[in-house]
Design brief:
The protein has 371 residues and is an alpha/beta fold. The chain has helices spanning 3-8, 19-32, 43-48, 51-57, 69-77, 93-101, 111-119, 145-154, 178-190, 207-212, 343-349, 354-359; strands at residues 14-18, 37-41, 63-66, 84-86, 105-108, 127-131, 163-166, 202-203, 220-221, 247-259, 264-265, 271-272, 277-282, 299-302, 305-310, 318-321, 333-337, 366-370. The structure holds pyridoxal-5'-phosphate.
Length: 371
Amino acid sequence: MSAASSTSIPRLTRAVIDLSACRHNLSVAKQSVPGTQCIAIIKANAYGHGMVSIAKALSEADAFGVARINEAIQLREADITKPILLLEGFTSENELDLVRKYNLDCVIHNELQLQLLEKESDDAITICLKVDSGMHRLGFNPDNVEDVYQRLEKCSSVNHPVKLMTHLANADDKHDEKTLKQIDIFYKSVEGCLSDKNTHDISIANSAGILGWPQSHSAWNRPGIMLYGVSPFINSKAEEHNLKPVMTMSSQLIAVKKINKGEAIGYGGTYVCEKDMTVGIVAIGYGDGYPRHAKTGTPVLVNNKRCALLGRVSMDMICVDLSQQDNVQVNDPVILWGKGLAVEEIAEAADTIAYELLCGVTNRVEFSYID
Ligand SMILES: *Cc1c(COP(=O)(O)O)cnc(C)c1O
């Protein structure tokens, strides 16, 4: 069978991406911090939604942020002309050449990057000095920030003034005081760098900062997960923040059967029927990105009605309890998450976060885009 004919056969598992919902979510981010700029974060294939399609849909974004240089190059090759910020910067001279070639902006967070910039006198690039205000992942120690800033200000290979940023570790918990501590440490560390000229070049807030921490708002904000219609906070729902789900994962029933009381279902027989039951088999599994750790009881929508996952998730299939449903048939539609069923709920049932589920959808799933 040729590749062309196999791809023209509709696939059982589908992810429909609602681009207008994504644009709506960006407008929520912008309205939450009026008069500031948004760097729409579209790393990891736009959290699994399709990076180029999302970038093209978000014409209102002021810039885009990605983690890796190959992601940025892919955007440029797709004719995305807005500023693109590399959140991890470059790792070598070779990558720095590519940064120039593709006109990318860079986060600078380590001494090696700084030294490479000091060696160069080529065309200036736009950079953002990252401060480690307490997350202890990327960034310069607050004690060294002023010194690093002065060194960067002397570089002819960077645009001036240098921008300043930090990242919040605990903003998803609205009661965690660490966020205010981080913001305080950040502003203290950059005090000596700020003049009237560059207070406009600060970036702190991720989605949780934008929606929950006004103290983190500054000239440039970096919404990620909220763009995809997911609440960034623990124990909160997307609707509370007027966010709309962007990805809807669906499949269909491929078998419906009666199973007697006392029989076990699926690998390992971890679920034993408490009564005679109608069980549906759905064509989706961890081979599509449905989480293997989803527990018995995880909600699934069959014909838009909630039912419960039973037993272990297999590579290609899951089993669901259809005892509460009448007239259910093979090929009936199933929604795993998205419209009508929050991905946060599935993430919780699988002991993970929505970010991971969205990023983990595999290429066996057929993507389509609606607007
Ligand atoms: C991923 C990321 C973001 C976006 O975070 P969300 O929680 O998805 O809003 C912002 N800033 C940096 C540096 C990131 O790595």
